[in-house]
Amino acid sequence: MSASIETQSLTKVYGNVVALDDFSHTFERSRIHALMGKNGSGKSTLVKMLSGVTRPTKGSMALDGQAVSFRSPQDAFNANIVTVHQELSLVPELSVTENIFLGRLPRSRVLGVSSIDWGKAHRQTEELFARMGLTLNPKATISSLSVGQQQTVEIAKAMSFDPTLLLLDEPTSALATKEVEMLFGLLRTLKDQGVTMMYISHRMSELSEIADTVTVLRDGQHVGSIEMAASSLGTVVDMMFGDVARATRPTRTTAIPVENPILQVRGLTHEPHFRDVSFDVRRGEVLGLAGMLGAGRTEVMRSIFGADRLDAGEIVLDGKAIASPSPQSMVQLGLGYTPENRKEVGLVQEHSIHNNLSMASLFRLAPRGLISKAAEAPGVAKQIDQLHIKVDSPALPVSSLSGGNQQKVVIGNWLNTDPKVMFFDEPSRGVDVNAKQQIFQIIWEQAASGLSSIFVSTELEEMLEVCDRILVMKEGQLLGELDPAETTLAELYTACMEGL
Amino acid sequence: MALNLFRRYPMEIILVLMYLYLSFAAPGFATLDNQMNVLRNITMQGIIAFGMTMVIVSGEIDLSVGSGVAFSGCVTAWVTGALSDAIGPWAAITIGALCAMTILFFVGVFTGKLRRHFNMPTFITTLGLLTVLSGAANLITGGFPITSFPFQFNFLGAGILFGIPFPVYIFAAVFGFVYFLMNYTSFGRALYAVGGNLEAARLSGIDVWKTKTLALGITGVFTAMAGVLIASQILSGSASAARGWELDVISAVIIGGTSLFGGKGTVRGTLIGVLFLGIIVNGMTLLNVSEYWQLVVRGLLIIGAVLLNHALDDTAKKH
């Protein structure tokens, strides 16, 4: 049986940040409710409270008029609220049945010994699939299925708990178009059976297809909720962004020359990530690569840098044609790359700040292979000083720093190589507002002193704020160029979603 | 104060305390002769342990060193036997030793290449090589020790120079060499980076595979050196020499505080680990502890040392 969910003045405060402010709304039963908003708008916070992961600071929730209060995810689960997370939580080596009934497989006694009743387990899975209109072999191992099929197994698993409310957190982010259609078919079937669903997605185009209502959050505020049938995507975009004040980029004292670019790429292809990508990076400019998740921005940079392979294409760096790039050769030619996931691949966490700041410049510091702390010290001190990295001692492990300072160490590591071109991949991810501004400041200062760079951020307003020029990518293709000075956030967003 | 000192130099302090205890409790422990005896006994495993430190810091392992020692002793003895008549024993020994070092260097390179191109864990490759090299050593000797060396060759492994066993000089030289590599070269820095975070190192333009492969190759050379030393000590090439050494060597590295996960460890720590094991074995023998009990105690010590290191790491994090 499905339920409506009602929130009353729901508020969540983290430290001095109000993540969700006074949210009151009723989500009607047996409908699909989309939840929209930029990163940090409060939608994850709302979902976390509904699923019992965090507790509201203030306010209340009611299921079908019954007040509920969740102390743990288990409480929400017991109230039949089931969440399907963005990351799959399946065990790849086990069968579909085992995954769905993990930890609660039906048992029977054989010769007095409790053992798993496989026949019954597979039958239950088949019944579940039949109800959902699915045709999957319950005995298949998860790893043999496509990502889309795995996602449906995940939802089937959620359905096996008979949820009254199903929370779906970006279920389509890893799916191909065909798989998305399959998933939507499943969601409609479930809706017809009376399941209430709450759906988070960044894919605007999906809204009109699947959502009955759209609830928009911005900076923790409830902007409004509308019936999808009676409104357009444009309305939703406007609600999401509103009027944003734009931070000012320092004005350029010298014009950026169009001719004689520092980096030229032509016809870059790496299937299935991107194809036929051509562009120039001009001397001293900050070039933005905009696009949604999976548009191929990171992949293009990684391939130019030589971290991933290229199927085809030409790269010319500072007049030099590069046949087969590798990180080693590109570093020495003056290209730097700060990766998007600094925790995992940008730093050696347990090593010292000192070592992390000279990791990429070893080849310069030690031309004959010999190195000493003394030889590295000036570069280390210079970056700590110029990037305002807050450290007690460079000998401390880099893991002791805050996210923003860690990011500065990643950047400093690269600036020590004296690069001609830098690729900044999500340099503002996971850092606080202050550090973010400082990092932009660093990028601008470096640009003013002649460094050319490519800047990538999922936060589109940052793209407008930081870049001199923006290239828009969608599904592995370069669509065209935008002038940030003459583009609104909503326009850029639409360009990334729907194309130019 | 005392606690802080302990936190910084835990194994050193335990080593000193143990040394003091044995000096009083174990008859004959503190004599010069016995001290030299301890030193001589640890040199060969120690030389390999220094190389192994680089391999483990780079995030890999080499389980084949025990057989590697036997194999290189046999190769050296065989070459000496085959060439002595033609070019004289000393040239023959030299060529034999160089052959052994070259072969084991390339065996290490081979392990590295398999790791790179087929993503073959070095644990598996070197486990296989442990058997392969042992078999090869037996093929060379036909099952009987080769006694082709002139008795003067005994000096290398058992001689005394200026009152100190000769192999100790080689031990010290290898320690100095590895210490230099790990602390004053970009190769050394790369070892730590590669073991600490392979992808971060790769994205920083470090040749991660060359680094790992070189560490494995150098350890092969050290293993061969130890093989030549032991052949000299027993004046023969024996396929059954050094059986089980791989575990002693890895134990010494781990007792010295090197993390099996890579990225963390020092060759100075390994020196302490080597001394620690050497003194324990010697002390227990002098105290008339049975060999079986010695095995039990040594095993427990390894577990204890790692537990201690973990505990100290945890308290260090809280501070």
What does this structure look like?
Chain A is α/β, with parallel strands linked by helices and 500 residues long. Chain A has 18 helices and 22 strands. Chain A is globular. A two-stranded antiparallel sheet of chain B has the order 1-2. Chain B starts with a helix and ends with a helix. Chains A and B meet through α10, α11 and α13 of A and α9 and α10 of B.
Biggest interface: A-B, 31 and 22 residues
Number of helices of chain B: 14
Strand content of chain A: 25-35%
- Biggest β-sheet of chain A, characterized? 6 strands, mixed
**What is the tally of beta strands of chain A?**
22
Measured on Cα atoms, how large is the radius of gyration of chain B? Answer: 20 Å
Uncertain runs of chain A are none
Given the helix and strand composition of chain B, which structural class is it?
A: mainly alpha
Strand order of the largest sheet of chain A: 6-9-10-3-11-12
Q: How far apart are the first and last residues' alpha carbons of chain A, in Å?
A: 44 Å
Oligomer: heterodimer
Largest sheet features of chain B: 2 strands, antiparallel
Q: State which percent range the strand residues of chain B make up.
A: under 5%
Distance between the termini of chain B: 14 Å
Mean pLDDT of chain B: 88
User: What is the number of helical segments of chain A per DSSP (H or I, 4+ residues)?
Assistant: 18
The radius of gyration computed from the alpha-carbon positions of chain A, rounded to a whole number of angstroms, is: 26 Å
Low-pLDDT regions of chain B: none
Number of strands of chain B: 2
Quick tags:
heterodimer, A: 500 residues, alpha/beta, 6-stranded mixed β-sheet, 18 helices, 33% helix, 25% strand, B: 319 residues, mainly alpha, two-stranded antiparallel ribbon
Task: Kindly summarize this structure in a few lines.
The complex is a heterodimer of chains A (about 500) and B (about 325). With about 500 residues, chain A is of the alpha/beta class.
